[in-house]
Amino acid sequence: MIKAYEYLDLMLFASTLVSLSTAFVLGSIIGYERQVRQRTAGLRTNILVAVGAALFVDMAARLHGIYGGNHGAVHVIAYVVSGIGFLGAVGAAAGAGLILEACLGALFVLSANTVMRPIVNHINRQPLDTLDTEVTSTLVVIAPKERQNEAYDLMEIVLEKANYPFQDVEINAFGEHEVEIEAKLVSQSIDGDDFDKVIDRLKRSPFTTQVFWSASTSE
For the whole prediction, is pTM greater than 0.85? Predict the structure, then answer.
């Protein structure tokens, strides 16, 4: 049985703190760039991957120093990495008797998921860099011909209230009795859940028969 108190070395703990702090900062820098470009793996994901990888390596080095050679605990860590990834690092550290390291790893993971969340939300609401990325979001409203003006006015009011300005608008015939109002939104990040409320508000109006939107991104 591993005696955890035997491995409470403050100098080694300080080394772990430096390693994980460095991974956290570098993961933040990389993740910020990814988040600004609105990639799938954004700020928090990159932080977690970086910190998790640093903790894996730190544990392997510590265990090698404790046991020497190839020890079963090191093999277990390898299985954790391939199985459940960085989230298993905290549990693996605790299981290896590296209590302070496990607590530190958990602290960084929680920080990435909580402290960084407001920053992520703020970035997601910012306009994209139009020099690198071109985003076109289009709102389409189908309305009866006799309700065209009311539908247009409602669309304008709802979008303005939700802080989604639009620029170009085209109105074309849609069959014999309806018109299609197509509004191109100003380039910015669209919050899917938030914009669904805009769509729902327009759909519930007696002035519209269909409402939908589409977005395309290119570099």
Answer: no
